[in-house]
Design brief:
Blueprint (H helix, E strand, L loop, with lengths): L16 H6 L35 H10 L4 H4 L16 H13 L5 H10 L1 H7 L6 H9 L2 H18 L6 E10 L7 E2 L1 H24 L7 H29 L11 E2 L6 E4 L5 E12 L5 E7 L8 H12 L5 E3 L7 H9 L3 E3 L21 H9 L3 H23 L10 H31 L1
Parallel strand pairs: 1-7, 7-8
Antiparallel strand pairs: 1-5, 2-3, 4-5, 5-6
Helix pairs in contact: 2-4, 4-15, 5-6, 5-7, 8-15, 9-10, 12-13
Length: about 450
């Protein structure tokens, strides 16, 4: 059988586009007509920002939530008021919505958020024509930790009053998040004392230069140099103040090895999930197992979860005037002191029991030095009911932690415990907003 003879080329030969277009099939008449891109044509597009966002967009839901909040405490601090000079301040509802939506989408940089406000249609919709800059956004994110903490309390309390959340059973877990500091920024006492002297000399030198020319106007660069010198001096002082705490954790012969960061003095080197060691903070989250609503937030500078159960239960008592009926924690939280204290407040603890080192004693047998609460805990964890209840910890606490990771809670962009806690509260708030939307949608479907 004879094969057909190939008349064309196996691969396209180089050539300009016009030549290829003219090489049309025999049956085609003329050159193909194409609509080519013209990016220099000026256009006037008549549309409103509100028309660019779908009605069911997440940003609209967050804006509706923010509109229902009370910003009286923030507005009272505004110095720009009607009838007086001064530039008008940005509506706090805009800044609040921007950061909630940015947190939801994993945007953790104020500079990146400011860029998006000028280019991305969703952020432009939120701004509604109001210009923002990264300085204002950064300050709003970290300056209102007390307001955010109160907002978490009021929002969860409202859900409890509504009957959507019961706070009967909560799961607590810690999540180590990298700090905005490098390992090379950690120094021992001699290095810190030398850095303190150098920082003091730098600040003194800049002050003398200013006093020598009091009438000259400072440039922005000079002002930035002075501010940076003062901030570095403050950080070195904070590092030296924290050094005794770190030395106390060392053995007497190793106290000289204690080190503190001059970039973020409150950051602590912790063992991370990947097995490595990095400067980090330990974010503690308590979550309602029934609804996955975050009910408690705390940030600590220790890599260990020991001793963190009782403070979280106390936080619930302070926030909602009630403690959860049951608390689910992993073995790192289960200390005898915490179990005794928490059980005394009315919260039943579910945590795994460590294996007994005595081969003649069972893992769940009470010990002679156990309090009644600890002895009851050991026996309780041997029952099938307790084991079934404890399974909810992984599906609750670890799921919430995974969602936070997916929203880019991998490394903090701010420094200092106060600012870090504010950022953690942003994650808790936006998580709860999205959970409430889901819960109410499910409730609406069930009622149909």
């Amino acid at each position: 059988m004879e094969s057909d003879t190939w008349q064309g080329n196996l691969f396209d030969l180089p050539g300009d586009d016009e030549t290829k277009l003219r090489a049309a099939p025999a049956e085609a008449v003329g050159v193909p007509r194409l609509r080519r891109a013209n990016r220099r044509q000026r256009e006037c597009l008549p549309y409103a920002l509100d028309e660019l966002l779908p009605e069911d967009h997440e940003a609209r839901a967050i804006w509706i939530y923010v509109e229902g909040l009370d910003f009286t405490t923030l507005l009272e601090k505004q110095r720009a008021v009607e009838g007086h000079a001064g530039r008008s301040a940005i509506d706090p509802r805009i800044a609040m919505t921007l950061w909630l939506y940015a947190t939801l989408k994993g945007v953790g940089s104020a500079r990146e958020l400011a860029r998006l406000c000028g280019q991305h249609v969703v952020y432009r919709w939120i701004c509604g024509g109001v210009s923002v800059n990264h300085h204002t956004l950064a300050d709003f994110r970290t300056d209102h930790g007390g307001f955010l903490d109160g907002l978490l309390t009021r929002s969860v309390a409202a859900l409890v009053h509504e009957g959507l959340v019961q706070i009967e059973r909560v799961a607590q877990d810690g999540m180590r998040v990298r700090a905005s500091a490098g390992s090379h920024s950690f120094h021992c006492r001699p290095t810190l004392e030398k850095a303190l002297q150098e920082a003091q000399q730098q600040v003194r030198k800049l002050k003398e230069e200013l006093q020598a020319n009091p009438g000259s106007s400072r440039t922005r660069q000079e002002a930035a140099r002075e501010r940076a010198a003062r901030e570095r001096l403050q950080r070195v002082k904070q590092a030296l103040q924290r050094l005794p705490e770190m030395e106390a954790k060392k053995k007497p012969a190793e106290k000289g090895k204690a080190r503190v960061s001059t970039t973020d003095p409150e950051a602590t080197t912790m063992k991370m999930a990947n097995g490595g060691f990095n400067p980090a903070y330990n974010v503690q989250l308590a979550t309602d197992t029934e609804t996955q609503i975050i009910t408690g937030v705390e940030v600590i500078t220790s890599g260990s979860d020991r001793g963190q159960l009782a403070p979280m239960i106390e936080q619930h008592q302070s926030r909602y005037e009630q403690v959860p009926d049951e608390a689910l924690v992993d073995g790192g939280f289960a200390t005898k002191e915490d179990i005794t204290e928490v059980e005394g407040k009315g919260t039943t603890v579910y945590a795994p029991v460590q294996k007994s080192k005595d081969p003649d004693r069972g893992d769940h047998d009470p010990r002679h030095d156990d309090s009644p609460a600890v002895g009851a805990w050991r026996q309780r964890m041997a029952t099938p009911e307790a084991k079934e209840i404890y399974k909810q910890r992984a599906s609750t606490a670890e799921c919430v932690n995974a969602l936070a990771r997916n929203r880019n809670l991998q490394q903090f962009r701010v420094r200092g415990l106060i600012k870090i806690r504010a950022v953690a509260l942003w994650y808790a708030l936006v998580h709860n907003v999205m959970r409430v939307l889901t819960l109410r949608a499910c409730a609406a479907l069930e009622s149909e």
